[in-house]
Design brief:
alpha+beta, Cathepsin D, subunit A, domain 1, 6-stranded antiparallel sheet, binds 2-acetamido-2-deoxy-beta-D-glucopyranose, PEPTIDASE_A1, Peptidase_aspartic_dom_sf, aspartic-type endopeptidase activity, Pepsin-like_dom
């Protein structure tokens, strides 16, 4: 889920689209049912630290899809459409986490069925999915694969039309798990980091198996899905601490035990979203950090700052890499002449209400990069029951602090000079730095006299993410 997903999602939950048009498509005989032909890793690609994608094949078409955990449907919009399409003439509407240029909202597609395949070898011969009218994609993502818990909107529409025995409308994962009822039903996700700016090192998804490097996760505490009023992978957070001190954080939910918070873990969210009071409590502890009133809730932080943040789940500590707490950018002086490097808080404000099913916070990829995480659906094998997570810490706070400085120092060698946060705050206030500090913002000196821009406007134009 990216941005304000739940506003739309809660609407959808009340108004699932259904359509009683009869269809001519029949599932294949049981003997041709889903086959698990392989195990192994499906590589994931980090798109600018915002979304993770993988390539799937549906109805003979390879499609790059973003992964999401707040939704459960598979939808695709390949740029040239599908070569052929088994159309059920049923429609479904799902929340859309991609295509920010087109605005976030929902997408509606026609439900089709076809062969689904992963590069790891998993294959489902008869899988329902949504085929959405192609629209432009600025980032090469052409659909979403929802890794959430049932129910899916596709399955609801299929079962309304075909009866409750029709299983081909279930989510991809449910159909893969259904093939092997003796195995445990879980996926493992590793999102490792490559530098600071959204590279991919060894990110992958495994299904019903642990990667050999992460076998120890089997011994991690089981963190059960918590709260009957939430959707998605919500669990209890024991504590979030900065510099060894727990941040005071009363839950918005009456269900949460005293001192704990309900948070939703989601690969489809870029960073961590938490309430402003706790966000300020975290970033204000960093020496030298300042906030600015002109760009609401923007904390400016020394790029080299070592930030010791730890999230605790199931009694287990998960140190957060400093690079997952700040973002590096270039800011241009108000007269358009000089460029400076600026680091800002990358965790942002949580805007969901008490009744929107998310809990107190969203823990997205900037948390998940710090843990190998197993999402157990609780539907199979020896682990039938409530869904739960098992996580293995991946960040050592001592080595991460040194790594962050090394990565930032190397990166900043090729960037404009950094100013102290308070001086950057002055630039945001509209102060033109005296002298020729920074690096020239324009190559041609003839262009050096830029028109003056309004202060707030200057920031939205000038602060460009350095990716
Ligand atoms: C995924 O598919 C796209 C388009 O076909 C291709 O450019 C890309 O290299 C593929 N990625 C992987 C990891 O296979
Ligand atoms: C399903 O959606 C498609 C695309 O939006 C639309 O053309 C079609 O009329 C819809 N079908 C039904 C049965 O609502
Ligand atoms: C359509 O469905 C049939 C099974 O009924 C399947 O064999 C075929 O591959 C499907 N075609 C496409 C394009 O998905
Ligand atoms: C589902 O399958 C069971 C067992 O084959 C059968 O008894 C039942 O009538 C079926 N239900 C529907 C709605 O078709
Ligand atoms: C089914 O699960 C069991 C237990 O995890 C595993 O040993 C077996 O290889 C799985 N079968 C297939 C076909 O994946
Ligand atoms: C389930 O537990 C039993 C007893 O501990 C064990 O023998 C079996 O291998 C387990 N099965 C799976 C799929 O883990
Ligand atoms: C960051 O720290 C490194 C190591 O102490 C130092 O070499 C570098 O100059 C620092 N960068 C800034 C911008 O302070
Ligand atoms: C973190 O790394 C340091 C230095 O390599 C090591 O001494 C320490 O034991 C590690 N801590 C943990 C919790 O693994
Ligand atoms: C920027 O403006 C704010 C609000 O007026 C003020 O509190 C702050 O001191 C100013 N900072 C600088 C460096 O001018
Ligand atoms: C200065 O920074 C702006 C973004 O703020 C960027 O568009 C521009 O290319 C930079 N100028 C130089 C010479 O790097
Ligand atoms: C400035 O010039 C450098 C080197 O010639 C070039 O790489 C860069 O893209 C130019 N920047 C702008 C903003 O034109």
């Amino acid at each position: 889920m990216r941005r304000a997903a739940c506003f739309f999602l809660s609407l959808l939950l009340l108004s699932r689209e259904s359509c009683a048009v009869k269809l001519s498509i029949q599932p294949p005989p049981a003997s041709q049912g889903p086959k698990i032909t392989a195990g192994g890793k499906d590589p994931l690609t980090n798109k600018g630290n915002e979304l993770y994608t993988t390539n799937i094949t549906i109805s003979e078409q390879v499609v790059t899809v973003a992964l999401d955990m707040a939704t459960t449907d598979l939808w695709v919009m390949p740029p040239d459409g599908l070569p052929s399409f088994n159309d059920t003439h049923l429609n479904a509407t799902v929340y859309n986490i991609i295509s920010p240029l087109n605005g976030f909202g929902t997408v509606t597609g026609e439900i089709g069925v076809g062969v689904f395949e992963l590069s790891s070898g998993y294959s489902i011969p008869f899988q329902a999915f949504l085929n959405v009218q192609p629209s432009s994609s600025d980032d090469g993502i052409f659909g979403v694969w929802g890794l959430g818990l049932e129910p899916s909107f596709t399955n609801t529409a299929v079962q309304q039309a075909y009866g409750s025995n029709a299983t081909w409308g279930q989510s991809v994962l449910a159909n893969i798990f259904a093939e092997n009822s003796t195995g445990d039903d879980y996926i493992g996700i590793s999102l490792s980091r490559s530098g600071d700016t959204g590279g991919t090192a060894d990110a992958f998804l495994t299904i019903s198996e642990y990667d050999s490097d992460y076998q120890a996760v089997a011994n991690s505490p089981k963190v059960p899905r918590f709260s009957t009023n939430s959707f998605g992978w919500t669990v209890l957070l024991d504590a979030l601490s900065v510099g060894g001190n727990k941040i005071d954080w009363p839950s918005i939910s009456e269900e949460a035990p005293a001192g704990k918070n309900i948070v939703q873990i989601d690969i489809g969210t870029d960073n961590v979203r938490m309430p402003l009071v706790q966000l300020n409590a975290l970033y204000s502890t960093i020496p030298g950090s300042v906030s600015t009133p002109y760009v609401p809730n923007l904390w400016i932080i020394p790029c080299n700052a070592s930030v010791n943040v730890v999230a605790t789940f199931g009694g287990q500590d998960f140190p957060i890499h400093p690079l997952d707490l700040t973002a590096i950018q270039v800011i241009t002086s108000p007269d358009g002449r000089r460029n400076y490097t600026m680091c800002t808080a990358s965790w942002t404000e949580f805007v969901f209400g008490k009744d929107e099913g998310v809990g107190d916070a969203l823990f997205g990829s900037s948390f998940l990069r710090n843990a190998f995480t197993v999402f157990n659906f609780g539907t199979g094998g020896n682990t039938t029951g409530n869904p739960f997570l098992q996580m293995l810490p991946q960040t050592n706070s001592t080595t991460a602090a040194a790594d962050a400085i090394a990565v930032r120092t190397a990166l900043m060698a090729n960037m404009p000079p950094e100013l102290a946060p308070v001086e950057l705050q002055g630039i945001i206030n509209g102060t033109i730095p005296s002298g020729n500090t920074g690096s020239p913002a324009q190559n041609s000196t003839a262009l050096a006299v830029a028109p003056s821009l309004s202060l707030v406007g200057a920031i939205s134009v000038a602060v460009i993410s350095f990716l």
